[in-house]
Structures
1.
Amino acid sequence: MTSSRDQSTPYPSAARIADSPCFPQYTASLKCLEEFKSDKSKCQEYFDIYKECKKKEREARLERNRSRSLFS
């Protein structure tokens, strides 16, 4: 069974990226790659910022999951 959200985008994972609090960092890293013709070495700072954001996002999700009870 698919949700209406899955049906509205050809790639459901793309919708999740856009919903992420790290979306601005993600788009900034892509813009950098575009600006520097895919020269990844010039964009390392953007990648590091995005990676740190994703790490914090994951830690927050794990903490939320730890605080949930399976029986509530």
2.
Amino acid sequence: MAEEKQQGANPSLEQPSNAKTSWPELVGVTADEAEKKIKEEMPEAQIQVVPPNTPVTYDYRLQRVRLFVDESNKVIQTPTIG
């Protein structure tokens, strides 16, 4: 039985193999538009809008997608899971 627990990774830390992990097509759209599109494809996503010069942590979270935006609230970097 202990052998079974050691085999395979923790499923809560794995991303499904067919799941999308980034949205390069959203660069240049507003944060609201980007959030709507990401939520359509990943309803459980926790979206964080990150204004210019805002510090962020470097921990990795499977449900988090950060939207780095410019002064006009447009996405300036490919949104990715993490």
